[in-house]
Amino acid sequence: MKDKNEKPYPSDLTEEQYQRLAVLFQSQERRGRPLEYALHEILNAIFYILRAGCAWRMLPRDLPPWPTVYYHFRKWKRDGTWVKINDVLRTEVRCQAGRESEPSAGILDSQSVKTTETKGLRGFDAGKRIKGRKRHLLVDTMGLLLSLVVHAANVQDVHGAKWVLQKAQAKFSRLALVWADAGYQGTFIDWVHDQCGWLLKIVKRTDKTPGFHLLPRRWVVERTFAWLGRYRRLSKDYEELTDTSEAMILAAMTHIMIRRLVPASPALDTS
């Protein structure tokens, strides 16, 4: 295990960040035998995997053994802990920023990523010419994750979007407006209104302005994808199961939000 005098990894939680997270993770734990390794080190190991992009078996020896770390990651995936903690942290980040606890608007988009030789669900996105999977995200106006689904890349955007919005429908009573790009126009607009009771507003790209320019509202979800891009484990989809892919994204968002809630001092911030 890591000595207290050793320099922390850039992905490590500070003591203040850990204390804020520990309450949430411990509240999700049911009765059982005490942890053999400290929760702080288990979380540090998971965030190390995400930021470094290495395989579970390549965890440094000063972190807990990889089977222990993977056991807890998998358990928190199966019992919904990652989802619950994201919901709590998102509410806290919004309130800290002076927002309502629940959003009234969201932004929808997908990202196609390559898969590896690992077996599992995949498909070919003819538009992006990528063989792999799509990460379909609904975020709030701060870029915080509301709902996600990972599916094969050959699934049309409107079909994947239905799964994402149906997951969000039961959770967000204040949600009334969703922005999306032109790939979601057409009859899908009526489906969103009829099934969810929300207004879907299409933000179109214009050819009048040459070069790159930010599109209103849509840049927010693109920024979220950029946040996730800092986590090398998410550079491709290395996971066999799509629910593991979703849990990886939720864990990355947990790391992002706890650092926003409890910023490290400038001397310690190595992000």
Summary of the model, kept short:
This protein is of the alpha/beta class and 271 residues long. 41% of the residues lie in helices and 15% in strands.
Description of the molecule:
The protein has 271 residues and is an alpha/beta fold. It contains eight helices and six strands, in the order ααααββββαβαβαα. It folds into two domains: 15-78, no CATH class; 102-238, Ribonuclease H-like superfamily/Ribonuclease H (Nucleotidyltransferase, domain 5, 2-Layer Sandwich), CATH 3.30.420.10. 41% of the residues lie in helices and 15% in strands. Strands 1, 2, 3, 4, 5 and 6 form a six-stranded mixed beta sheet that branches. A hairpin with a 4-residue loop joins β3 and β4 (145-152). The longest helix is centred in the C-terminal third of the chain and has 20 residues, at 242-261. It is globular. 34% of the residues are buried.
